[in-house]
Every structure is written in structure tokens, then in C-alpha cells.
Amino acid sequence: MAIFIGAFRLFFSAFLLSLLNAASIGINSAVEELLEVRERARRDASTLGQPTQIHRAKISMVGTKVMMGDSRSVTQMFDIYQYRVSWTEPTSWNDNFDDSSRRYELNCWVEGGNGDRKTIVRKQVGAYFSGYNQKYRFPPGLDLATQCQVRANNSAGFTTSWTETNRISVKDVPVYFPGFEDVDLRGLSEEGIISVLSKNSTEVATESVVPSETSTKKE
Q1: CA 59 to CA 83: how far, in whole Å?
Q2: Partners of 79 in the β-ladder
Q3: Pairwise CA distance, residues 117 & 122, whole Å
Q4: CB 175 within 8 A of CB 186
Q5: pLDDT by 10-residue block (mean), the chain, 219 residues
Q6: Does any domain span residue 33?
Q7: Are 94 and 9 in a shared domain?
Q8: Number of domains, the chain
Q9: From CA 190, how far away is CA 202, in angstroms rounded?
Q10: pTM value?
Q11: 36 — alpha (psi -120 to 50), left (phi > 0) or beta?
């Protein structure tokens, strides 16, 4: 019995020690993480220089078909593109936490097949935004591509290098009727587009008609 009690005490002591070691490791890890955060904040407060580079700058686009008149008398038909640019904020601005003058510079352009470039966006965006969107109507029948570049300016007067977005060919952007995102209208003739609109409008009108039920009072 004494041997059993001694073995149990030894096992229990070892168990307590393992718990204390685990707790100590957890506390040390939390303390180290806190010290790392404080050290990073101290470096940021004492370092004035370029912000860290912007990453993941991206353009996304979708087209909407606009038709003036109605399906029986179309006077004009064209595409409007919702143009969105987004990017990630610098990990560190390196301006002693002074956000008074932080901003982004954004340039966007379109290029034709012959390499000619036309600027469509050249503006400064406040640092509290990480994107920009606008609507554009591009000339039809041209082989156009669009791209952007963005860079960050901190309050200490330092600027990152440019980060370029993806490049999008306008002819590869899907075009839909508002409310009918199931049919891509690219490549369809005017008659085909009107046919799609008429068909979708008829289906919507049919679905909106709900048969009513009547009851007859039994005599």
C-alpha cells in the first residue's frame, strides 16, 4: 500500500509540474508577442521613411447594356462599364503614426491596338479609402485594354514605387442587361439583343402573374 501511495504521489507531482510548465510556456509566449508588438510600434514611431509597398492592386469590370427607346423602336444602344480598382494598405506607413497627409496616387489608362495610350484617371485618393470606382463608356469596335498603377504617400513626405494592377481587355468583359445577369450580350447583333430583352421581359411578366384561388360556398 505504501508503495502504491508513493507511486501515486510521484505521478501527481509530475502531472502538476507538466501543468505548470505548459502554463509557463503559454505566459512566456503571450509576453513575447506583447513585447514584439511594442517593439514594432517603437520602431514605427522612430522610423521615418518609405511606406511598405502596396500589394494586390486589382481592376474588376462588368458591362451594362443601355438601350434608348423600347424593343419596338430602339434609338440608341451602348455599353456602360462599372470600373473598380482596389488595393491593400501598406503594412507600415513609417510616418510616426501621423495620418494627416497620407494619400494614394492613382493613374489609369486605356491602350489601343497600336499602342496609343489615353489617361482616364489621374487623381489622389485619401488614405482612408483602398479603392476607387467609376463608370465609363468606351468607344465601340476598338481593341482596347486598360490598366492602373497606384502608390502610397505618407505624412513624412515619402512615397512608394508604383504597383501595377492586372491588365484587362475591354472586349473580354461580360455585358448584361440590368436585372438579367444570365445572358452575356457580347457579340450579339442588335436584333439578337432585342430578342433577348423581349424574351426575358415576357418571362418576368409571366412569372409575376400569380393565379388566384376562388372558393364556392357549398349550399
Answers
A1: 7
A2: 65
A3: 13
A4: yes
A5: 54 60 67 68 70 94 82 74 96 92 97 89 95 92 94 96 96 84 72 70 43 40
A6: yes
A7: no
A8: 2
A9: 18
A10: 0.66
A11: alpha
